[in-house]
Amino acid sequence: MKLKTKVIAVSVLLGLFAGTIDTIVDYIFFYKNEIFFDLMVFDVPDPEIYTRSAILITFIIFGFAVGHIISRLESALSEIKILSGLLPICSSCKMIRDEKGYWKQIESYIRDHSEAEFSHGICDECYEKQYKNQN
Question: Would the CA dihedral through 113, 119, 125, 131 be positive or negative?
């Protein structure tokens, strides 16, 4: 069973449980002359019907809201890929050694191990070094 379905089911059960607790409290303090089961199911005064319905509906709405948030979090977590640990990198050419021992460009390694994509440009310092003498 999916987590969202479990949350909704638990919310419904909690709503029913809260309605039962409400009935028990009413029975103890207000309706001592009634038969408990009748008060629970059959001879429920109108204000109590509204209270129990409101409690149950509130828990159901809460369950759907929490279930929706959980499903959104699960989908967001499934999209995340994290690089962690130490990466052996060449201090000269900046290539990275992969798990198999092969040296790869840093862009290729990160692209293979995450969802990142690269676009290339040139920084001001490298532009000065590369193109200053050509003009």
Answer: positive
Look at the pTM and tell me if it is higher than 0.90: no
pLDDT tens, 99-121?
Answer: 889 999 988 888 888 878 888 88
Place of tokens 């479990």: 6
19 is written with which tokens? 């309605």
Backbone phi and psi for residue 105, each to the nearest 5 degrees, phi listed first = -65, 150
pLDDT-derived band at 17, boundaries 50, 70, 90: confident
